[in-house]
Write a structure and sequence with these properties.
The chain is mainly α. It has helices at residues 3-27, 32-43, 61-82, 86-90, 93-117, 122-133, 137-146, 153-181, 186-219, 226-244, 250-261, 267-292, 304-328, 333-342, 347-359, 365-390, 404-407.
Length: 408
């Protein structure tokens, strides 16, 4: 069987499993994303190991699935930006800044201290703290879309806080590598900050003054799905530029691209196509790929207590740090708990950060196992916690309802 046919069969299995799991999850009163992540865990190396079935001989299949999933998370964050307006996001700047700052500072400090209590060296302990500072807002964004709460005050504050979180974690990680591994000095860290500011400024300038005219021009061309193709190109370019030029995560660039496209009159033409492409193929693969990237068999018994401690600190520190920041920014206590909960998930971002630690030789296999366990737990508990906290909350009236086929 050719590598392409192997890929085709595996994708078919993934899509069927994702949709069935999403349907069962919603029937049980939980967000569909929870079922998709769980079934991904079952399909992964922890149990079935779908990318190494008897008929699968392609050595690159797992990597291909992972890369398709990366496209999924870019589309998911693009859609999150597309459903917002820039002026809505800027109204929550104070909350976003405070929640983003405290949502990084407290996890880093508590994670660092906890690791020191377990006898880890200062360098490894600090890196574990940095891993706890990361946030994967894609899981929370999808849950809020299903709850029709993305454009609520909490949803807007959460997305803004995630941008601040991304900037702070990148800066702290760069400083860590500069100090402990000679990866740079103060000047190089300042250069990273300047690159971030320039990228954000250029992205907003292009989105406000060039993109609307470009979208209007392209929409008039006799080309099939011209606006959708333009949106995909802009999303991908923003994602690449965010990492290469801005030193930020690609998902931040994709979110900004969606935010800029939300200002265009062609948004209404764009939405059906991008939703179909995302939720019909790439987003389910992304949620499944999270489970495929985790192997529970690698979590060693000797790291059980460290894993338990890291999980507790990871959940409590984000909840308290980001929640307190939201409260100081003017949110009610309920809104603050909701925002703090939305920041708990580490998802693919936590895995990326800890992979840097392994590559740099900063963390051992035991410590890596503990972080993988933490990433898994925080990713799984965030959707049901958010649903529970939003139960009975007033829904926003200006957000289009999520389609049933998108939720399941």
């Amino acid at each position: 069987m050719s590598p392409f046919l192997q890929l085709a069969i595996v994708i078919a299995i993934i899509l069927v499993a994702a949709k069935l799991a999403g349907y069962l999850s919603t029937r049980l009163g939980q967000p569909s994303v929870l079922g998709e992540i769980l079934v991904g865990l079952l399909l992964g190396p922890s149990l079935l190991d779908i990318t190494h079935l008897p008929f699968v001989h392609s050595e690159t299949l797992g990597e291909t699935i992972h890369e398709l999933g990366e496209l999924g998370v870019l589309l998911l964050m693009f859609i999150a930006g597309l459903e917002l307006h820039l002026n809505e996001l800027t109204r929550n700047t104070r909350v976003a800044a405070l929640a983003g700052f405290l949502g990084v500072a407290l996890p880093v400090l508590l994670g660092w201290g906890t690791a020191l209590l377990f006898g880890l060296e200062n360098q490894s302990a600090l890196f574990i703290g940095l891993t706890l500072g990361a946030t994967s807002v894609s899981i929370s964004a999808q849950t809020l879309i299903e709850l029709k709460a993305l454009r609520s005050r909490v949803g807007l504050g959460l997305l803004g806080a995630a941008v601040f979180d991304d900037i702070l974690v990148i800066l702290l990680l760069s400083a860590f590598l500069a100090v402990f591994h000679g990866g740079g000095d103060t000047a190089s860290i300042l250069l990273i900050l300047v690159r971030m500011v320039l990228f954000l400024a250029a992205s907003v300038a292009f989105g406000m003054w060039v993109l609307p005219r470009l979208a209007r021009l392209v929409s008039g061309l006799p080309i099939s799905q011209s606006v959708l193709s333009l949106a995909l190109v802009v999303m991908l370019v923003y994602g690449v530029a965010a990492e290469v030029f801005g030193g930020m995560a690609a998902i931040t660039g994709a979110f900004l691209a969606g935010l800029m496209f939300a200002r265009c009159r062609e948004k209404e033409r764009l939405e059906p196509g991008v939703h179909a492409l995302a939720y019909g193929l790439f987003v389910p693969i992304f949620f499944i790929s999270i489970g495929l990237s985790v192997n529970l068999r690698t979590i060693e018994a000797s790291s059980l207590w460290l894993t338990l401690a890291v999980v507790i600190v990871a959940v409590a520190s984000k909840l308290l740090g980001a929640g307190l920041g939201a409260r100081l920014g003017g949110f009610s206590w309920r809104e603050s708990w909701q925002l703090g909960t939305g920041m708990i998930s580490r998802g693919e971002v936590g895995l990326i950060v800890i992979s840097i630690g392994i590559a740099q030789g900063v963390v051992s296999q035991n410590e890596f196992s503990a972080i993988v366990g933490m990433v898994l737990v925080t990713t799984l508990i965030t959707p049901p916690l958010l649903r529970a906290l939003f139960k009975g909350s007033p829904k926003t009236t200006d957000q289009p309802p999520a389609k049933a086929e998108e939720r399941a």
